Amino acid sequence: AYILVDKFGNNGMGSVVGLLKVGRKKLFLLDDVGKHNEMVPQCVLDFYVVESRQRSGCGKRLFEFMLRRERIDPRYLAVDRPSPKLVSFFRKHYGLGTTIPQVNYFVIFSGFFKSQLKEEVRPAPKKTRIYMGKL
User: Which candidate, 96, 72, 97, places its Cα nearest to that of 20?
Assistant: First the structure.
């Protein structure tokens, strides 16, 4: 999780301005033509900026820090249940306006499946199977 703090807020005691939670999740994602893909992409799980600090650059600053730290392009993120404000944020700052809605309530953007590095896509790991009985 990434947390943006204003050290001088709350009468000098500090205050949280924003929160961004990311992580990898095993997902079944549909591409532009409806083909199923089992993947473990980087996901935006929660993103919140205190209302009084929205539209002042705090969210962009927090998000850019995460992108640099995770070394990922925003078009390769799967976003869990994005609000209309978050979709607008992606459109405004990253030119990502065309979404590919998923049945699992995640949203991916057009271009998600194009030119990704193998390590960013990461197919879901195979589970070890234990067989009981005669071989």
Answer: 72
Q: How much is the pTM?
A: 0.81
102: β partners: none
Cβ–Cβ < 8 Å for 75, 94: yes
Round to the nearest angstrom and report the end-to-end CA distance of the chain: 47
User: DSSP per residue over 66-134, as a string?
Assistant: HHHHHT--GGG-EEES--HHHHHHHHHHH----EEE-TTSEEEETTTTSS--HHHH-BPPPPP----S-
* Residue whose tokens read 């607008």: 88
pLDDT digits (tens, 9 = 90+) for 4-29: 999 998 888 889 999 999 999 999 99
Is the distance from CB of 52 to CB of 100 less than 8 angstroms?
A: no
User: Do 2 and 20 contact (CB within 8 A), yes or no?
Assistant: yes
CB 102 within 8 A of CB 30: yes
